[in-house]
Amino acid sequence: MKTLPGSPTSSLMDVPRGVWILGFVSLLMDVSSEMIHALLPIYLVAVLGVSPLAVGVIEGSAEATAAVTKVFSGAISDRLGHRKWLAAGGYGLAALTKPVFPLAPDISWLVAARFVDRLGKGIRGAPRDALIADLSPPDVRGASFGLRQSLDTTGAFLGPLLAIALMYLTANAFQTVFWIAVIPAFLAFLLIVLAVREPRPAQPQRPGRLPLLSRGELIRLGRPFWLVVAIATAFTLARFSEAFLLLRAQSVGVSAALVPGVLVVMNVVYALSAYPVGALSDRIGRVALLAAGLLVLAVADVLLAFAESISTLTAAVALWGLHMGMTQGLLATLVADTAPGDLRGTAFGLLNLVTGLTLLAASAIAGGLWDWIGPGATFTAGAAFSLVAMLALIAVRRRIGSNDAGPHSPTP
Q1: What are the pLDDT digits (tens) for 145-186?
Q2: pLDDT at residue 56 in the model
Q3: Alpha-carbon distance 89 to 67, whole Å?
Q4: CA geometry: angle 224, 124, 131, nearest 5 deg
Q5: Using CA atoms, how far apart are residues 34 and 38, in angstroms rounded to an integer?
Q6: Would you say the pTM of this structure is higher than 0.85?
Q7: What is the pLDDT of residues 334-357, one digit of tens each?
Q8: Which of 224, 223, 141 minimizes the C-alpha distance to 408?
Q9: The pLDDT of residue 10
Q10: Nearest to residue 381, comparing CAs of 294, 296, 301?
């Protein structure tokens, strides 16, 4: 299947059916998750009295849990030669955690539910991304990852919108909103189980007695893949948890009921930009667009550091969403471009392991700077890390190899 130059519509039509279904699975799960997560930082700080530093540690630790899990689930999917049922198990586990949020009697239950929810995300993430790579021809790979990201992010702004509406209708009844969030989570699980068909594995199943991460396989992933991981690590230091966007909104005077609107603005821009950027990268390459996304993040962080009005905050949050649309799908596509086909699950797992652990450090640093100096220091540091990551990417772009050439790249 070939795309017509300059025609994103033809590229969209060429995206495989399985990728569309996985995108809607992500959309439903994100509606559920973001209805809860859009309110959770404010609930922890304003209702339970938790400090911003503790929020950073909780959020970073939860994401790190997901990252550590991804490396094993991705490698297991490579060993088995199958991805779907591992991904489905992760979605099912996340769905089972959702009723814990309205039932939790104290903060320990909320923290535990957050961790188990992220564990489910860790189980599903790498096999799902590897499955998308398996389903997608090279000439629409960027479009496929961009579409999945756009649908996922559509759920990420519908969730906060529902949270805002329900908080208004229920007079800020957090538990009621959390109960309603249970429904789309279970719908996502049913959709992946009943509608996704996995392609026959192109590679033979490898012996299960081998270690999940053998030295030979780490070497075989190749230098271009490890350079992508290094750039993603530097980038993650700048992209700490979005919980700090919510806290920043509260600090400039946004009411608790409207704070989820921050995620709505961010995710609308994210959803609208992810697919066009992915499709464009199939034609002109990935690295220049990724570098531009890092520059956008630096600008957003500077605005957030000095924001004193809701209008400045809104502009900064919109730019944050644009940088997400310009980077998240491209990083996943670069992994698919550079990793051997039979090691894609391992590759996505390793990427998420390294960036998840980095996110833990980044969120802890962000929370510490917020507590000790103020919000301005948190976002100024983020801008500095963004510029460093952008310069590093420019320096190594040629070493990533011909896989950045777009649809004419060799199939791994």
Answers
A1: 888 888 888 887 788 888 888 888 887 777 788 899 999 999
A2: 65
A3: 16
A4: 55
A5: 5
A6: no
A7: 888 888 877 888 888 888 778 777
A8: 141
A9: 44
A10: 301
pLDDT value at residue 7: 43
Q: Which residues contact 249 (CB under 8 A, 6 or more apart)?
A: 259, 261, 262, 313, 317
How crowded is residue 290: how many other Cβ atoms within 10 Å of its Cβ? Answer: 28
Residue 302's contacts (CB-CB under 8 Å, 6 or more residues apart) are: 379, 380, 383
Gap between the Cα atoms of 19 and 329, Å rounded: 13
What does the block give as tokens for 34?
């973001």
Joined together, the tokens standing for residue 12 give 């969209």
Question: What is the pLDDT, as a whole number, of residue 408?
Answer: 40
Ranges of the chain whose pLDDT falls below 70: 1-12, 46-50, 52-57, 59-68, 70-71, 200-214, 256-257, 399-412
Write down the domain spans for the chain. 12-198+220-405
Q: Are 142 and 272 in contact (CB under 8 A)?
A: no
309 phi-psi bin (left φ>0, alpha ψ -120 to 50, beta other): beta
3-state secondary structure the chain: CCCCCCCHHHHHHHCCHHHHHHHHHHHHHHHHHHHHHCCHHHHHHHHCCCCHHHHHHHHHHHHHHHHHHHHHHHHHHHHHCCCHHHHHHHHHHHHHHCCHHHHCCCHHHHHHHHHHHHHHHHHHHHHHHHHHHHHCCHHHHHHHHHHHHHHHHHHHHHHHHHHHHHHHHCCCCHHHHHHHCHHHHHHHHHHHHHHCCCCCCCCCCCCCCCCCCCHHHHHHCCHHHHHHHHHHHHHHHHCCCCHHHHHHHHHCCCCCCCCCHHHHHHHHHHHHHHHHHHHHHHHHCCHHHHHHHHHHHHHHHHHHHHCCCHHHHHHHHHHHHHHHHHHHHHHHHHHHHHCCHHHHHHHHHHHHHHHHHHHHHHHHHHHHHHHHCCHHHHHHHHHHHHHHHHHHHHHHHHHHCHHHHCCCCCCC
Tracing tokens 């797992």 back to the chain, one arrives at 349
Q: How far apart, in whole angstroms, are the C-alpha atoms of residue 224 and residue 226?
A: 6
User: Which tokens is 133 given?
Assistant: 């790579």
In sequence order, what are the residues at sequence separation of 6 or more whose Cβ sits closer than 8 angstroms to the Cβ of residue 260?
38, 39, 160, 161, 163, 164, 167, 246
Closest CA to 356 of 127, 148, 75, 119: 119
Measured between its terminal Cα atoms, the distance across the chain in Å is: 17
For domain 12-198+220-405, is the CATH number 2.60.40.1120? no
